[in-house]
């Protein structure tokens, strides 16, 4: 990147001011809230912080949260890839409608999302009565929590992939097919590598939201301490007990998820760099060809 | 158009992809939503209209949608900027900032609300500097916008970022070779490529913000007609055991969101098609 | 295979119900956690001594009406412990428990009570003594949202009842007083504890309306030196009614244990525990022992002033009711 005024890089003052504004925004909206969470969590020392995390109810909440995210995220991952494939690669009637329906769970207030499942599976509905008669518990138990989590994180992977796959076009997959690859192979070898960043962000966002969801889960959970309380619900309880250290300590665990993102991203970048070194020649060639097409 | 259709149909897997999406959509989204609409339909038109045309309900709907739109607009600008800086520039601590972008999703919304209120209250870390200037954030509609901006930020950054990452530098180089200056390249080459993702991200941020409850109640002040959001109306109706009234307001919110989302998505498809035709 | 698994699970569940002592679930409202956390071990010990059974007690806490709705929709709570009789009445109208639930335990099924107090800043700089002082211009009042919290409702009704009981008191006078008080309310927090945080941590407001036992919790958590307690000349008595959920205990076969769990609330040990949490015990001997910490407060029973809880809720807190109208025209 050169400092001269060119078409591929901004002037130095533009870069500095863009960075400055972005940093100020991050500082004001992200960093300070994060620091305040950790400051409160650690305000009475590391000992109390760790004690708050290893207390049985907290451990149960962490376990439940991890379990339900581990079910909800893969489900939405499969759905997201399927939906993105159908929407970004094919033309069909009602496509806009389908996309809009996929967006819908975001606009449903979390409380309402929870309420819907209570209406559907509560003992006063036909479905709920049937389940109760057969001794199966959905709401006020883990399945309900998983369902609510799946609902609120429903669109993430799909919505992350669709614009990306559209901007890339289907040229490469078609080329692979023409060259004799099977549909599955072209998907694994061409599509997936091309969308890996989108996929990663989708999964990360999905996971973060799955673990952090409060409103919807709070309606279907039943709040049984040590049984159906997720981390966010446990945080609320502690906060209402004026146990600020405990509340913010548990919240900080979720904040640490962001660091997990960092690790995964670095790992992928590192692997990619290695692969690129190995195959740099081939990639270069492909790039040149593609650039030629665009020109 | 027909050309597009034919060339795209070479790819396999449409039935599979479409089938999975539809089945999952039906099970997780449409069935529960239908249940809610059925529950609302039991109350009949007069009761429904009486509920949703109430002065307080209308004021709260207006507040929810306007505040969400403002927050989405803020996020569109700063989210795009942030994504750009993160992808293109070398910056000290960039990876850390990158990781922090997901924070608003990971933090439980109530914690976000509490943290933001602590900071922006008149005696808070940030609020104490704003108070002498006459700017009140916490317990005003402005506070709602702050909370909604916070929870919506990752949407824009994370949808724009992968597109920027995959954007081929060769295109910019080509533009440069053809004599374009930087501003022209950004406006004519980069921006159109990023636009669909930007619109998607902004739309999602908007959609999410309209329904947000957990973070807002702590910072909003919750005064009827002034700072009471629509989801709070739903909750307070539930607290009165008025399940029908609650679902009625929820259905109205849903319909408005649905119409807005459909409009935005249609516009986007329309513009994508037009751009595609030009190419 | 799947079916066999189901049958196996069912058999195991049945066996657990028949052989071991059942697990009791107590659905309670938000701030009762602290008390029941200590009460449960007390009861478990006493029950083991009496019957030899080891009972596990699970706790579920949330906003009171949210908890009731959860029970209505199938949360298998053996007992409910609430802070407003009207919440338990909802379960009676859905036939989940008998309509005469209040007669099944002593003292109308209310083992302990509290009352509404005013918390003011140290030194009482605004000279707040009674409800009309909250209506003065320049006084900021922190009150939880009466639409979403029992705390807010009891506070609101206390001020209303005070105005009714004055010479020449009428609904019009009460409306005027409460209207002026609400005009001094800068924000409405969702629940009592959130209101406390606003008052104590954000340092907003001159007076906080809350339960007497909450005021004690606040002084334990935030330090006693920061505020003073003011008892108004008339306040609502805040009941903490309890009930066994018939439909659940009959299905689970846990009636005996559930009944014992609530009965034990009236034992001297449990009553003393309540007193230590600044809940006014129903047992007069225990109350006398802790008299020093409970100053005399003239209280009223909500149904005696407002007819019944149902009519109070309907008239004041339903959508379009008195509270909504006062907030709209403040």
Helix content of chain C: 40-55%
Whole-number count of domains of chain A = 1
Count of DSSP H/I helices of chain C: 16
Strand content of chain A: under 5%
In total, the number of domains of chain C comes to 2
Order of helices and strands of chain A: HHHHHHHHHHHHHHH
Q: Work out the largest interface and the residue count of each chain.
A: A-B, 120 and 120 residues
| First-residue to last-residue Cα separation of chain A | 23 Å
Low-confidence stretches of chain A: 1-5
Cα distance, first to last residue of chain C? 66 Å
Sheet bearing the most strands of chain A, described?
none
Number of helix segments of chain A?
15
Walkthrough of the structure:
The complex is a heterotrimer of chains A (295), B (279) and C (330). Chain A is mainly α and 295 residues long. Chain A has a single domain, classed as MetI-like (MetI-like fold), CATH 1.10.3720. Chain A has helices spanning 12-41, 45-54, 56-89, 95-107, 110-121, 126-133, 142-152, 156-168, 171-178, 183-194, 196-212, 215-221, 231-240, 244-278, 280-294. Residues 1-5 of chain A have low confidence and may be disordered. Chain B has helices at 2-8, 14-41, 45-52, 55-88, 94-100, 103-106, 109-120, 127-130, 141-166, 169-177, 182-211, 216-220, 230-239, 243-278. In chain B, helix 3 crosses helix 14 (243-278), helix 4 packs parallel to helix 9 (141-166) and helix 13 (230-239) packs antiparallel against helix 14 (243-278). Chain C has 330 residues and is an alpha/beta fold. Chain C has two domains: 2-111 and 240-293, D-Maltodextrin-Binding Protein, domain 2 (3-Layer(aba) Sandwich), CATH 3.40.190.10; 115-238 and 298-328, D-Maltodextrin-Binding Protein, domain 2. In chain C, the strands form two sheets. In chain C, strands 4, 5, 6, 7, 8, 9, 11 and 12 form an eight-stranded mixed β-sheet that branches. In chain C, strands 2-1-3-10 form a four-stranded mixed β-sheet. In chain C, strand 1, helix 2 (33-51) and strand 2 form a beta-alpha-beta unit. In chain C, helix 3 packs parallel to helix 4 and helix 6 (150-165) crosses helix 7. Chains in contact: A-B, A-C, B-C. At the A-B interface, helix 1, helix 3, helix 4, helix 5 and helix 7 of A face helix 1, helix 2, helix 4, helix 5 and helix 6 of B.
